[in-house]
């Protein structure tokens, strides 16, 4: 099948017997062009099927009006809400998005970062994979003066701009709540402690135990991938413990819901036998029975704040290099799954 030739402004100019410069200005609705002439130009453009070549235009301006977003996964309510926040701000500002995900692989993350660099994104918003230790693949952006903002999973010791919550406070708060409900044998189900979010939640958990004179036992810390299977595995490990733990802080709501259901299937009562707190405030927490206590992690706010800071930097309204860390609000939501004391 023969490909139809792309219509250019020269084709429109030839049909209307106008100069290409006049057609170009008319397509941009320039006030210097007579209103009726503008209307004729735009009607003819639609009739001929003309498409504005944004790519060529942006290359001339040395910008693409495109923001790259690099995330560690896509099948997560939290990441979906962050992307919604980013998209809201970038759309309002006239920017397009290119989204890539690492599937929790630092190798794939590095390849995607290079790919986004070569696609000439004006800026990058990124969340790191579980195993990312070396951030050299983001050096390409720094060398070219392309701004990068990290969110959620970040390198805390780095000088880059990052948007996070206080994961330590959240870990402490969730554990303290379980202790106040009478729990003394509290399991922590979390992910790779090399990543800032899980390391800080673990530290909060451990410090809350220490401050309440409750011994820390390594056997109560279950390092998982926070998947559906993780919830089942965590429940089966908990069931084998003797005595049975009386509390659990699970740093992902979906995993917590699966763990709860598996425990219930084996005759464990929640919260009477085990009180449970999750993390993220996903919709599943309101569906599971009993409803899940959780840490509210406002993904939309995080996405909006990261995008707004990046756009303001690109427009010269602020400089992200002057803002090292932005901490957004988070809080404990208490529901039936952890309320042993009414």
TrEMBL record:
Species per Swiss-Prot/TrEMBL record: Sediminibacterium goheungense
Keywords on record: DNA-binding, Transcription, Transcription regulation
Name under which the protein is recorded: LacI family transcriptional regulator
Residues covered by the HTH lacI-type domain: 7-61
Domain of life of the native organism: Bacteria
Xref: Pfam families: LacI, Peripla_BP_1
GO molecular function terms noted in the UniProt entry: DNA-binding transcription factor activity; transcription cis-regulatory region binding
SMART domains documented for this protein: HTH_LACI
CDD domains attached to this UniProt entry: HTH_LacI, PBP1_LacI_sugar_binding-like
Alphabetical list of InterPro entries matching this protein: HTH_LacI, Lambda_DNA-bd_dom_sf, Peripla_BP/Lac1_sug-bd_dom, Peripla_BP_I
Keyword NAD: no
């Amino acid at each position: 099948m023969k490909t139809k030739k792309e219509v250019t402004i020269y084709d429109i100019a030839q049909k209307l017997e106008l100069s290409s410069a006049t057609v170009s200005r008319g397509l941009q609705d320039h006030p210097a062009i007579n209103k009726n002439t503008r209307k004729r130009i735009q009607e003819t453009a639609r009739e001929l099927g003309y498409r504005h070549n944004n790519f060529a235009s942006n290359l001339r301006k040395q910008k693409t009006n495109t923001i790259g977003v690099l995330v560690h996964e896509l099948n997560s309510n939290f990441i979906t809400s962050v992307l919604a926040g980013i998209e809201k701000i970038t759309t309002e500002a006239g920017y397009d998005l290119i989204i890539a995900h690492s599937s929790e692989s630092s190798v794939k993350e590095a390849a995607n970062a290079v790919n986004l660099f070569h696609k000439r994104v004006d800026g990058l918003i990124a969340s790191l994979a579980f195993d990312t230790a070396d951030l050299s693949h983001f050096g390409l952006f720094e060398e070219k003066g392309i701004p990068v903002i990290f969110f959620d999973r970040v390198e805390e010791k780095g000088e880059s701009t990052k948007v996070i919550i206080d994961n330590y406070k959240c870990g402490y708060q969730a554990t303290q709540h379980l202790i106040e409900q009478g729990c003394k044998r509290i399991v922590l189900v979390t992910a790779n402690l090399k990543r800032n979010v899980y390391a800080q939640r673990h530290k909060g958990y451990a410090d809350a135990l220490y401050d309440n004179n409750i011994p820390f036992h390594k056997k109560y810390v279950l390092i998982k991938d926070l998947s559906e299977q993780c919830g089942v595995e965590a429940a089966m490990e908990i069931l084998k413990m003797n005595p049975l733990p009386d509390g659990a802080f699970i740093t992902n709501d979906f995993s917590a819901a699966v763990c709860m259901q598996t425990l219930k299937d084996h005759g464990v009562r929640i919260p009477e036998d085990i009180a449970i707190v999750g993390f993220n405030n996903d919709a599943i927490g309101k569906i599971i029975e009993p409803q899940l206590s959780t840490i509210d992690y406002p993904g939309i706010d995080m996405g909006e704040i990261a995008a707004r800071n990046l756009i303001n930097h690109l427009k010269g309204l602020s400089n992200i290099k002057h803002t090292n860390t932005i901490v957004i609000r988070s809080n404990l939501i208490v529901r039936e799954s952890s309320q042993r004391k009414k």
